[in-house]
User: Which sequence fits this backbone?
């Protein structure tokens, strides 16, 4: 004779899984924003170096205007 114990496992409903995925997405976004800091610093250093080597240049080394536009869009989405 076997003594089997069953553990009741609640399966997530579609709604619960959807909500969990939406909440988990924030952690992923936070991680991605943290990961952007290093390349952003490197781009700044690269830009400084370029302008020191080319003091009369009006060239855009990294498109900061576009980056700022995207950040503005993100801020707008997050405002209530």
Assistant:
């Amino acid at each position: 004779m076997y003594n089997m114990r069953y553990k009741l496992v609640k399966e997530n409903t579609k709604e619960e899984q959807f909500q969990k995925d939406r909440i988990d997405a924030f952690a992923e976004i936070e991680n991605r924003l943290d990961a952007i800091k290093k390349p952003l610093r490197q781009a700044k250093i690269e830009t400084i170096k370029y302008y020191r080597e080319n003091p009369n240049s009006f060239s855009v080394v990294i498109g900061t205007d576009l980056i700022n536009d995207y950040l503005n869009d993100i801020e707008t989405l997050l405002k209530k």
Remarks:
- The mean pLDDT is 90.
- Residues 32 and 50 are 27 Å apart (CA to CA).
- The longest helix spans residues 14-53.
